[in-house]
Amino acid sequence: LRKFEEQKTTIELSTFELVEFVTTTIAEFKPLIMAKHQNIELGGLKHLEIQSNKVILKSILSNVLSNAIKYSPIGGKISCLIKTNNSQYLIEVHDSGPGFKGSDIEKLYQKFGKLSARPTANETSSGLGLYTVKLLTEKLGGQVKLTSTTNYGSCFTLFFPKQQQIKNIIDY
């Protein structure tokens, strides 16, 4: 994480199938999802190639999925949608957790930020997950956006550029 906090970091990109990548990442969480009797659905596009860094993207997606599982109730629903627009690829992760209170928004992406919501099955939280998501998403030239309603869940949308125009991450 520390090396990505530095301004310039070399990131190697490759082209890969995003839907397959997301499906595989979700499958790694099946034991946790099953233990909490949750339902997770993958929707949206069925095939999409992306140019990105698999290791970094996996860390981002794993953090967002982990939070959705942690904060959704037992028997809750989680969905992941893969979309595209004219200039970006989008991955949306919706959960059925408590959502975020207004007081949490300012601390949302802070390092070691502790928010008001608590995991629903005594899972641990380091306070680094959303900080990591934002940092790494930006390193890939993307953005993260939260849509949340208290007591009705949250949706984290990850935006990644179609044409890699990554700034300040390649060593010169």
Strand order of the largest sheet: 2-4-5-7-6
Radius of gyration: 16 Å
Percent range for helical residues? 25-40%
Structural class: alpha+beta
Order of helices and strands: HEHHEEHEEHHEE
Average pLDDT, rounded to a whole number, is: 85
Indicate the proportion of strand residues: 25-35%
Explain how this protein is built.
It is a single chain. With 172 residues, this protein is an alpha+beta fold. Helix content is 31%, strand content 26%. It has six helices and seven strands. The protein has helices spanning 2-5, 18-27, 30-35, 54-71, 102-105, 129-139; strands at 14-17, 39-44, 49-52, 77-84, 88-94, 143-149, 153-161. A hairpin with a 3-residue loop joins β6 (143-149) and β7 (153-161). α2 crosses α4. The longest helix has 18 residues, at 54-71. The radius of gyration is 16 Å and the shape is globular.
What's the topology here?
Layout (H helix, E strand, L loop, with lengths): L1 H4 L8 E4 H10 L2 H6 L3 E6 L4 E4 L1 H18 L5 E8 L3 E7 L7 H4 L23 H11 L3 E7 L3 E9 L11
Parallel strand pairs: 2-4
Antiparallel strand pairs: 1-3, 4-5, 5-7, 6-7
Helix pairs in contact: 2-4, 4-6
